[in-house]
């Protein structure tokens, strides 16, 4: 895994003119492309929430390609078990769904360095943010191995995918290696979730179809649940900052 020099990485962390932007000075075309790309990814992910209940019992293969959601991959594996979808297509769709936007965050780390890491972790006075920055941004052989493993294990709880991908770009991991590790991780996790659905078979299909039959109510519950979680998280973060 090749790395940039410390000087190059510090150069990427340009002094900021505005605290809410990860670059300083006039933005380049790459800055704008990556910045709007990140927000489009977030908007796309949010827009997919209410669609999941509609598609999970009718076309879970399309849903896993669109979202990379574990539930969609599990349902698609179950549909493959009952002959409703080719297993190879289930695998391909899951890999695409998991990996299609990762390169955007790799590019952000490449362009903005530590500024992007701060953007994703929050203020450095936050203890958790400091620990994450310390773990993912020190340019040592051990840290590079940790980042490489984290890319593959991105679906493990408490492994923040965007932060790991950005750190890979910052410490100098080349795009071909990054994409290779990301594809390996996508294949492993798709295989696990789709394999679980394949093992369950018809009962999982029945559950997915029931969810789709009640998609209106499930979608509303997902939307309101997401809003409540976001509000609660915002209040918790505000309380921590005051403490």
Key features of this structure:
243 residues, 75% helix, mainly alpha
Largest sheet entry: none
- What Rg, in angstroms, do the CA atoms define? 20 Å
Number of domains: 1
Strand content: under 5%
Cα separation of the termini: 41 Å
Please render the helix and strand layout as text:
Elements: H1 6-12, H2 29-48, H3 52-55, H4 60-67, H5 70-81, H6 87-99, H7 102-112, H8 114-121, H9 127-137, H10 141-152, H11 161-170, H12 175-200, H13 202-213, H14 215-242
Helix pairs in contact: 2-7, 4-5, 4-6, 5-6, 5-12, 5-13, 6-12, 7-8, 7-11, 8-9, 8-11, 10-11, 10-12
Folded structure, characterized:
With about 240 residues, this protein is mostly helical. It has one domain (about 5-15, about 30-215). The protein has helices at about 5-10, 30-50, 50-55, 60-65, 70-80, 85-100, 100-110, 115-120, 125-135, 140-150, 160-170, 175-200, 200-215, 215-240. α5 (about 70-80) runs antiparallel to α6 and α7 (about 100-110) crosses α11 (about 160-170). The longest helix is centred in the last third of the chain and has 28 residues, at about 215-240.
Quick overview:
The chain is an all-alpha fold and 243 residues long. The chain is 75% helix and 0% strand. It is built from 14 helices and no strands.
């Amino acid at each position: 895994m090749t790395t940039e020099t410390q000087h190059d990485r510090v150069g990427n962390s340009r002094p900021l003119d505005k605290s809410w932007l990860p670059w300083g000075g006039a933005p380049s075309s790459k800055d704008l492309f990556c910045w709007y790309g990140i927000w489009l990814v977030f908007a796309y992910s949010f827009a997919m929430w209410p669609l999941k209940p509609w598609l999970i019992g009718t076309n879970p293969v399309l849903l896993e390609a669109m979202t990379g959601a574990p539930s969609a991959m599990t349902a698609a594996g179950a549909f493959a078990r009952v002959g409703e979808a080719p297993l190879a297509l289930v695998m391909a769709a899951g890999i695409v769904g998991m990996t299609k936007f990762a390169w955007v965050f790799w590019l952000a780390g490449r362009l903005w360095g530590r500024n992007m890491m701060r953007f994703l972790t929050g203020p450095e006075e936050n203890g958790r943010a400091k620990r994450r920055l310390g773990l993912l941004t020190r340019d040592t052989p051990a840290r590079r191995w940790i980042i490489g493993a984290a890319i593959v294990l991105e679906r493990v709880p408490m492994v923040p995918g965007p932060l790991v991908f950005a750190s890979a770009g910052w410490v100098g991991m080349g795009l071909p290696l990054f994409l290779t590790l990301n594809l390996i991780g996508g294949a492993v996790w798709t295989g696990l979730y789709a394999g679980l659905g394949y093992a369950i078979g018809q009962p999982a299909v029945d559950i997915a179809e029931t969810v789709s039959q009640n998609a209106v109510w499930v979608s509303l519950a997902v939307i309101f649940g997401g809003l409540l979680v976001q509000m609660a998280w915002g209040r918790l973060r505000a309380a921590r900052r005051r403490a």
